[in-house]
Amino acid sequence: MTTASSAVVFDRVSKSFGTKEVLRDVSFSVSAGEALCILGRSGTGKSVTLKLMIALLRPDQGQIWIDREETTSMNYKDLSRVRRKMGFLFQDAALFDSMTLYENLALPLQRLTKKPDSEARPLIEKALCQVGLAADAKKMPSELSGGMRKRAGLARALVLEPKILLADEPSSGLDRITAAEIDELMLGMKAEYKTTLIIVTHDIHGARRVGDRFAVLDRGDLVAFGSAAEVEHSANDIARRLISEG
Questions:
Q1: Is residue 22 within 8 Å of 41, Cβ to Cβ?
Q2: How far apart, in Å, are the Cα atoms of 35 and each of 14, 119, 127, 138, 189?
Q3: Would you list the DSSP string of 85-107?
Q4: Looking at the 3D structure of the chain, how many domains does it have?
Q5: Which pLDDT value is given to residue 154?
Q6: Alpha carbon distance 1, 10 (integer Å)
């Protein structure tokens, strides 16, 4: 199912928690440098899909390919190597409150690479500059606004220069202008570095601005997959309504 251009592939993936089936036989492929937006009502497995990609969860069945490597049977060492290709923007930014912004960005470099401080510093400064926080490196997370925290979370994902960025509700809790700024930052990554973007979102305006293709999940099933126009003309009523809301 993988090709030379595949960044992420789900091949008949299923996941349950107890008796609740969250994903059922889901298959799709995302090409390198493409932006996929995952849509669906609350509780339909969108965030679980991201966690399966980064192997925070393991599927009950099926295969998951990241940059043409099958990850479901990998050991911890190999998973760590594959994860270094990915950045993760959490819904709440997930910054460590006891660390400055600079220290928050330094942490993944310390844990996942062997770069000395002399090599890490320019990467951190570049990432902060990219998101407009160059003057805020010494601030604590409590001193940042919601929009600044989200940009800081994006900077921390950027610092490893990931091939694939996973974003969970990047516009959640933000006003329309700030949400658009986050969208533009992600599009800038995609244009400059050919980063693959996989974004879980309820923001249809932002999704249509950023997404090349769209995956719609409903009650554990992938009910539509394709361009905005293809989803708009899907046979599935939920998919048509979600892509056209707003």
A1: no
A2: 23, 30, 20, 33, 11
A3: TEEEE-TT----TTS-HHHHHHH
A4: 1
A5: 86
A6: 9
What's phi and psi for 131, nearest 5 deg? Answer: -105, 10
- Tokens 């969208």 locate to 183
Residue 47 carries which side chain, given as an amino acid letter?
Answer: S
Asked whether residue 56 is domain-assigned, the answer is no
Exposure letters 18-50 (e unless 16+ CB within 10 A, then b): eeebbbbebebbbbbbbbbbbbbeeebbbbbbb
CA–CA separation, 161 and 85 (whole Å): 8
CA distance 181 to 228: 22
Domain that holds residue 135: 94-161
**Chain segment 22-53, per-residue pLDDT in tens:** 999 999 999 999 999 999 988 889 999 999 99
Q: Is the pLDDT of residue 226 over 60?
A: yes
**Spatial contact of 170 and 89, defined as CB atoms under 8 Å apart:** yes
d(CA 8, CA 198): 9
Does 135 map to a domain? yes
Among 210, 170, 153, smallest CA distance to 187 is for 210
Please tell me the pTM assigned to this model. Answer: 0.89
* 99 is a domain residue: yes
Q: Does residue 82 fall inside a structural domain?
A: no
